[in-house]
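quick q for whoever's on today - can somebody do inverse folding on this one?? i tried earlier but teh output was garbage lol. tokens:
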């Protein structure tokens, strides 16, 4: 367990805002503010959050005291982020029991739509950036409203004039949502080791004072919240400029896992604005998650990759500053005997214009002048290369991975391959952590769907027979145990030509497998239409709909009930088998790998996209 310093002891009553003493009894607003203060001290000690604003300014190329800084931090972070997040993630859910096959198909289609509808990919990218800058990226989930906290479907997010009190377009009414949360505005208790073991989490919420006072979801205490009520608690005003937010107020939203409740408090207000059962907590824990690239088992706050190279970047800037001074010193200078040149003749030398001749009053051999041209000391460039190499090693990036061709020496193809593999190992580990965050958040979102989607909803799903079905479902009809995995493309290796080649190999494999299954008289479920569509989609100039007309079994105006769709699995095998038997199959190719064993819907030797199985989604 992390050590506890002397400041992290039992809370004491303290004064807030103008000397008003808040309720310091356990569970009161004053008590909670003391707990938050301890959590901020925990973050400052192990997460070095007092340095976060400085690291953020480096990323924005703000280097005080340097005229010509080299922003190595910016270039390294900008090179690393695209390599760890994913461009087009896909989720697949596998049922734990056969009768859940239909629910797994519907939930797979629904989750993949939500990823795009809710702009989750952008939120993941922001978290990836936070994890590089501050060491830890934070996410938050909810449903229906941003500040509703479980008041699902009450429409209280509108004031008496019908104006919506929430202005976040990524939060869609009735839908779950996931958003990146600033690490500056997130606190866990002192000694927390992981988000799963956190006793509570606290989110700082900054809202316009008019929205707070008009929000009927809050108690009457909302009318006592003072405008511009910002503390210096854990924030750097040089970065956030809270002094300019005179029409806004600071709230703390606390999710208490121990009591299963959620509270909203404001500094200077004696009573909570909100204190109800926390409906956003699921079997997967609190409605928050964390991303970090470096393991820190004993502490929640991980070390910052940017912080580890800060000294290198400062040293590099110092070298550049010295080089800049030497360039000024290297301008040609000379000494001359007083009176050797008239002022007009001396100006010809100093003004930089091209002149034919300068008159001297003394013979040149009598030492009327002497020229000096200083040179830059050697070693600066070599020292710069060493520093940049050390920093890249810390990040796990080589020059080639940052888009800079390495011409320092000749490299064989084998050597280049080894370097690439070494970099891929570290990038793959970081990418794997990002995928885990997506899966954990989607697990929690699915639990909210199971609990709160009572209104029948329709989604189009590809059935086990390859046909398109419009299925009507509710959250309860999807509830069950599922295994979830994410299929993501490699940011470096997935190019259009590579995807086309893989799609062509996949088609050959499927045809060979279908022929082998036919020869063995074994059933094999192959969705040839989906495979052809995927192959054609790799050619951007081709519209697959001009070649393929999908079989539509139902329509959105007359959807199939969920229970009926779930009973289709067993009846679909014969249909697919008959369709395969009618295909004109080419001869079996012996160079395409071994066909799948009988009864298995796959092919040995078939190229596999990178996948990341994580945990089980359960009731």
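ok took a stab at it. sequence:
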């Amino acid at each position: 367990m992390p050590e506890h310093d002397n400041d992290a002891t039992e809370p004491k009553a303290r004064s807030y805002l103008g000397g008003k003493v808040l309720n310091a009894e356990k569970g009161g607003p004053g008590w909670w503010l003391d707990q938050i203060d301890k959590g901020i001290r925990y973050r400052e000690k192990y997460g070095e959050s007092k340095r976060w604003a400085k690291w953020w300014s480096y990323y924005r190329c703000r280097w005080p005291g340097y005229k010509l800084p080299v922003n190595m931090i910016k270039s390294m972070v900008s090179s690393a982020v695209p390599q760890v997040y994913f461009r087009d993630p896909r989720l697949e859910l596998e049922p734990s029991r056969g009768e859940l096959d239909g629910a797994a198909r519907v939930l797979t289609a629904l989750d993949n739509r939500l990823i795009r509808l809710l702009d989750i990919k952008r939120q993941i990218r922001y978290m990836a950036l936070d994890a590089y800058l501050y060491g830890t990226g934070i996410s938050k989930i909810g449903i229906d409203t941003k500040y509703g906290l479980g008041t699902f479907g009450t429409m209280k997010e509108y004031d008496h004039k019908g104006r919506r009190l929430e202005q976040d377009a990524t939060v869609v009414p009735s839908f779950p949502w996931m958003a990146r949360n600033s690490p500056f505005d997130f606190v866990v208790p002192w000694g927390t080791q992981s988000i799963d073991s956190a006793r509570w989490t606290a989110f700082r919420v900054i809202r316009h004072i008019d929205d707070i006072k008009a929000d009927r979801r809050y108690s009457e205490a909302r009318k006592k919240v003072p405008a511009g009520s910002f503390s210096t608690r854990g924030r750097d005003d040089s970065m956030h400029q809270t002094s300019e937010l005179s029409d806004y107020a600071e709230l703390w939203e606390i999710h208490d896992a121990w009591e299963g409740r959620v509270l909203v408090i404001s500094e200077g207000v004696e009573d909570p604005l909100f204190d109800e059962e926390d409906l956003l907590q699921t079997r997967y824990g609190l409605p928050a998650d964390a991303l970090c690239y470096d393991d820190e088992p004993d502490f929640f706050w991980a070390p910052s990759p940017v912080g580890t190279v800060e000294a290198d970047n400062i040293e590099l800037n110092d070298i550049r500053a010295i080089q800049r001074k030497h360039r000024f010193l290297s301008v040609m200078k000379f000494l001359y005997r007083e009176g050797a040149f008239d002022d007009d003749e001396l100006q010809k030398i100093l003004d930089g214009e091209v002149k034919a001749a300068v008159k001297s009053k003394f013979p040149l051999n009598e030492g009327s002048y002497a020229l000096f041209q200083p040179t830059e000391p050697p070693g600066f460039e070599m020292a710069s290369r060493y520093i940049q190499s050390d920093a890249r090693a810390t990040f796990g990036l080589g020059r080639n991975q940052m888009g800079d061709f390495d011409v320092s020496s000749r490299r064989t193809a084998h050597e280049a391959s080894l370097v690439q593999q070494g970099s891929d190992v570290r990038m793959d580990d970081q990418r794997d952590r990002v995928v885990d965050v997506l899966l954990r958040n989607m697990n929690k979102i699915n639990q909210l769907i199971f609990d709160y989607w009572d209104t029948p909803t329709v989604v189009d799903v590809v059935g086990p027979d390859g046909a398109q079905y419009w299925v009507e479902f509710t959250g309860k009809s999807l509830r069950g145990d599922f295994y979830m995995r994410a299929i993501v493309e490699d940011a470096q290796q997935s190019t259009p030509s590579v995807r086309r080649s893989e799609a062509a190999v996949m088609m050959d494999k499927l045809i060979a497998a279908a022929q082998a299954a036919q020869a063995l008289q074994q059933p094999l479920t192959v969705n040839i239409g989906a495979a052809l569509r995927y192959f054609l989609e790799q050619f951007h100039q081709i519209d697959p709909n001009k070649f393929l007309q999908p079989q539509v079994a139902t329509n959105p105006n007359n959807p199939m009930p969920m229970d009926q769709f779930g009973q289709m699995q067993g009846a679909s095998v014969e249909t697919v088998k008959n369709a395969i038997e009618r295909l004109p199959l080419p001869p079996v190719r012996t160079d395409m790998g071994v066909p799948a064993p009988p009864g298995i819907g796959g092919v040995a030797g078939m190229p596999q996209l990178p996948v990341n199985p994580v945990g089980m989604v359960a009731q």
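fwiw DSSP finds 16 helices and 18 strands in the chain. also Confidence is low (pLDDT under 50) at residues 1-21, 570-619. so keep that in mind when u check it
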